[in-house]
Design brief:
UmuC domain-containing protein; 6-stranded antiparallel barrel; SulA_CellDiv_inhibitor; 15 helices; DNA damage; globular; alpha+beta; single chain; about 675 residues; 5-stranded mixed β-sheet; UmuC; DNA/RNA_pol_sf
Length: about 675
């Protein structure tokens, strides 16, 4: 029976062994190896010939030829890659930079042939029919495209030509530096793809299943019946089966060229006054905003580039809480030129060119006002932006809480108008970190007697209560300043209880509330195995009663029967955070009862119980050398981080100290030196 040779969806059907098989459209794929490395190196200003690696989620995404020569491979962890190549320079992958750097490359290819489809940054596809007919053959057209890339300073390109984009991509990857063009004859895609592994399908779940079934090559997968593959693996598996057979019927879809939104204003002769530039840019700003409105877009991030007669280009990105109107654009240009001067100030160098580049545009529907209005106050934004233009980009900042183990480490100061992205991700695990405010857990099925708050201190139970939570090495538990001083009831003879003590704290005067043991927050794993030491809240022994004057008996409150807290727990008790975190920790000295400095050994053992501390003289330190008697303390909580890097290694132990004036302090000892990091007022 004759087989129809009519093209179907841009392809052809060729006669096979008793069955018809569809042949995809002849496709040409242009591939630039190691493109993420080239793009990142161009931004960082380093040579791509150096040993470089681009990381994505802590693993190597791409590496340079010099790094591969040292054994760096795709998928390695950063630490393993650096152990193989100590000189390796690690760069962070940024998809925005990757796509932005590849856009001019697409433009240079479109100058030779239209209809380019971007597969991913560094790889594009186009129909082979038009260029091959114009330049005489497919190899000649491919060589012309590669020559065009080299003139644009993009060396090392490869071209693959086959039936369909998938086979053409694999042909481009099979090309080498000596043979830059690999052409697969018409109808030969299945034979070319047969020896390749199933990993080339880039479907991890499917390829893992195929390997377990013993199908390790595309040829073995392609020999399965199509109906059986559809039944067993579904539509996605059936599509992968067609790719393995060389029946890729996908068409090359040319990219939609984005509209040109950048506006350029040239000054001839050059202008040396701020008000003259601002007056001239008004027309360009109206044109830019009008074009965006016609496209249904608004600009939220604008880059202003000012070229001067001296050859320098001053550029800055401006953000807006809503969107830029023509007047806002003129204001930003004036502020950038004016700085700390006035509107009639003369510039240091005359302006010859001004470019307005919308860096980020959003659909206008995403910024429509709600019923009661939305967005920050524009007057505040304008005022702070004006101050920032006068004092400098980093003079007006916004604090952002990020990740870290200490309170000072978590704070990141972001210049006003920049995206509020902290230096360290708060979502990452930070073992050994200090706790923040958390929601209290659901109340346990227990009863507690409501007792009115008393002004006198409440003594703790002399022994641990069955069922009460046991203090364990955890993050520090700050003592609120509103609480009364904490004391432990002495055992007979004035000695302290032998075991851990659950401390009851009397609240400030106010409405009645249940009084019970202060719960301990859930355990946070320390950064070092040596940090798993047990710490409790220690209190100074109460003075013995005077024989001449009888003292009132200690007031004991009934302790509620509670269920022991599961350790660790995902829901902690509310822990107050410090009211004041010092930007620079204050040097201090902590002494024991015999007057010796308190130290901490490598195993977390103290040389003596903290009895008193004082702040050492330092800039911006008030009341230096004043002695603060310590009435209660908790710790140590060792932290050992970045031990593998000698430059950033940090090893310390933290304490909490409660002084006689009712204040609490967060202290740390590092290399026998004490520091006060924060205070709880």
């Amino acid at each position: 029976m004759a087989v129809s040779q009519q093209p179907v969806q841009g392809g052809r059907r060729s006669a096979g062994s008793g069955s018809a098989r569809q042949v995809g459209m002849r496709t040409m794929v242009v591939w630039v190896p190691d493109w993420p490395v080239l793009a990142a190196a161009s931004v960082e200003g380093v040579s791509p010939d150096a040993p470089l690696a681009v990381l994505l989620k802590g693993r190597v995404l791409a590496s340079s030829a010099a790094a591969r020569a040292e054994g760096v491979r795709r998928g390695l962890r950063a630490r393993d890659a650096q152990s193989r190549c100590p000189e390796l320079l690690v760069l962070k992958y940024d998809p925005v930079i990757d796509a932005r750097a590849f856009d001019p490359v697409i433009g240079c290819l479109e100058a030779l042939t239209p209809g380019v489809q971007v597969i991913r940054p560094g790889m594009c596809a186009l129909k082979a029919r038009g260029p091959s007919r114009f330049y005489g053959s497919e190899p000649a057209a491919a060589e012309k495209l590669l020559d065009r890339l080299e003139t644009y300073d993009v060396p090392g390109g490869r071209v693959g030509i086959a039936d369909g984009p998938f086979a053409a991509e694999q042909a481009a990857r099979a090309a080498s530096a000596q043979t830059r063009v690999k052409v697969i004859p018409t109808g030969g895609s299945a034979e070319f793809l047969a020896p390749l592994t199933v990993d080339t399908l880039e479907r991890p779940e499917l390829t893992d299943l195929l390997r377990r079934l013993g199908l390790r090559s595309l040829g073995a997968f392609a020999r399965l019946p199509a109906t059986e593959v559809l039944t067993r693996f579904g539509p996605d598996g059936a599509f992968a089966h067609r790719l393995a057979r060389g029946d890729d019927d996908r068409a090359v879809v040319a990219r939609q060229v984005p509209p040109e939104l950048t506006r350029t204003l040239d000054f001839e002769p050059p202008v040396d006054r701020v008000d003259q530039v601002a007056f001239a840019v008004r027309t360009v700003a109206d044109e830019l905003v009008g074009r965006l409105t016609a496209l249904g877009l608004v600009c939220t991030t604008l880059r202003v580039e000012v070229g001067t007669e001296s050859g320098r280009v001053h550029e800055r990105e401006w953000l807006h809480p809503r969107w830029f109107a023509p007047g806002d654009v003129v204001d930003r240009v004036r502020w950038q030129l004016q700085g700390s001067g006035t509107a009639t100030s003369e510039l240091t160098s005359p302006v010859v060119r001004l470019r307005l580049v919308p860096e980020r545009v959003d659909p206008v529907g995403a910024h429509v006002d709600t019923l009661w209005g939305s967005g920050p106050d524009e007057r505040i934004h304008r005022a702070l932006s004006r101050v920032q233009s006068m004092l400098g980009h980093g003079a007006v900042v916004t604090p952002v809480i990020g990740g870290g183990r200490g309170y000072a480490d978590r704070q990141t100061l972001i210049p006003w108008g920049d995206p509020l992205t902290p230096d360290r991700s708060p979502d990452s695990p930070w073992p050994g970190s200090l706790p923040g405010p958390t929601a209290p857990p659901a109340p346990a099925a227990a009863t507690a007697t409501p007792v009115a708050a008393a002004p006198a201190p409440i003594a703790s139970a002399p022994t641990s209560v069955p069922g009460a939570p046991t203090p364990v090495a955890a993050a520090p538990t700050p003592v609120s300043a509103a609480s009364a001083p904490v004391h432990a009831a002495p055992a007979p003879g004035g000695s302290m209880p032998a075991g851990p003590t659950s401390v009851s704290v009397a609240p400030a005067a106010g409405p009645s509330m249940p009084i019970g043991p202060t719960p301990v927050p859930p355990v946070r794993a320390a950064s070092s195995p040596r940090a798993a030491s047990v710490s409790v809240l220690h209190s100074a022994p109460a003075p013995a009663p005077s024989p001449s004057k009888p003292s009132a008996p200690a007031t004991h409150r009934p302790l509620p029967t509670t269920t022991p807290l599961p350790l660790p727990s995902t829901s902690g008790w509310p822990v107050p955070v410090p009211t004041l975190v010092y930007p620079t920790p204050h040097p201090a000295e902590v002494l024991s009862a015999d007057g010796r400095p308190v130290t901490v050994s490598a195993r977390g053992a103290l040389s003596g119980a903290p009895s008193v501390f004082r702040l050492l003289p330092a800039p911006q330190v008030a009341d230096s050398n004043k002695l603060y008697p310590i009435t209660a303390w908790a710790g140590p909580w060792p932290v050992e981080e970045r031990w593998w890097d000698s430059d950033t290694e940090n090893r310390l132990a933290r304490f909490q100290l409660v002084t006689a004036d009712g204040r609490a302090w967060l202290a740390a000892i590092q290399n026998t030196h004490w520091w006060i990091e924060a205070s709880y007022d």
